[in-house]
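Field reference: sequence -> structure
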Amino acid sequence: MKADTFAFLKQEFGIDEKVLKIVEEAENDIEQGFKETDDITVHNQYKVLKAFQKNRISDMHFGWNTGYGYDDAGRDAIERVYADIFGCEAALVRTQIVNGTHALSLTLSGILRPGDEAIYISGKPYDTLEEVIGIRGEGMGSLMEFGITYNQVELKDNKPDIEGIKSAITDKTRMVCLQRATGYAWRNALTIDDIRECVKAAKSVKNDVIFMVDNCYGEFLDILEPTDVGVDVMAGSLIKNPGGGLALSGGYVVGKRELIDKISYRLTCPGIGGECGLTFGQSRAMLQGIFMAPKIVNGAIKGAMLCGRVYEKLGFDVCPRPEDKRSDIIQSVKLGSKDAVVAFCQGIQKAAPIDAHVTPEPWDMPGYEDEVIMAAGAFVQGSSIELSADAPIREPYIVYFQGGLTYEHSKFGVIKSLQELKDRGLISL
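Structure field:
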């Protein structure tokens, strides 16, 4: 960082010189990791470009119609592009899918039938999925209410328990499910190699079992996606990685055509499926978002690496470690106290372009067991590919940092979080 930038940050944002020096040192420490990330981005950018050219995307696909959406050319083009990027037969990419949890819920409820069993092999799923399954909450509308049973296989040393997976699969097991990202767990995200091994193990026991991956936060972290290594169906959110910060809402499901058809019947209704449903003029933003996504994800990954290295240098436990292979954009930091978690998130909020003047506080959020604090000063509300941080208010007080539409902004988030902790006397430099 040049001297004039140092001076600007000190004068205009009140950043302490010690904070800036720690961040600069950390940045130098992880230079090789940045290069490896850039290599992945180059591959993925060209993969996305190829999908656009193959499907002859033109400005006609940016228009939209009204009513049922039978002839929404933009919607159909988006779904062809997604199917090609993820190496699948078919895709469902819709503004009507409200978030990643909804995409996953559609996938589970569209495929599973009464008497079937679903197994999560990555331990406890993300908080909001617990009510979908029925293992928490009132159970209204849950899978369990409809006679679908559930089992889970815990990770072993934070890696899939291959023998445990094999033992858990029975005749009634219809789906094997894996969450790639960490969620609110203290572990590294599961890698493509991990997923490949899990698919092989599950299919060796029951060849017709459907393997599903929750790919939220994981898109474009590798040159391969889970669907490239045998996964049958996969779901995610457009306000995370693949939306590139431009998609205003939505989610996606990709996979085998037979499965996507079943899921589309749950999204709308039997007999209609994916034939209806407008893009409401969002096709341009959705297409531009997926085109920009590899580069946007690149900045987010670098920001996460920087965050990990900065807080590691200060003596905090971080996950993943800066040198670890990354499979999602999330950086976890074990801060050890509620005050530190709140200060960190409030520092991130102060770094935002939108609502920087707002002070986030812990509150009861729908779908979450504990109070949660969320810093999210974003152009698209709730977009976690934009700079954000969140944490459940529970021991051992871990904060989860992710996103940034540019690396420079993600870096500034790290700077402001550090400054906030210093100003409150929660760290010493």
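Note: Residues 319 and 394 are 17 Å apart (CA to CA).
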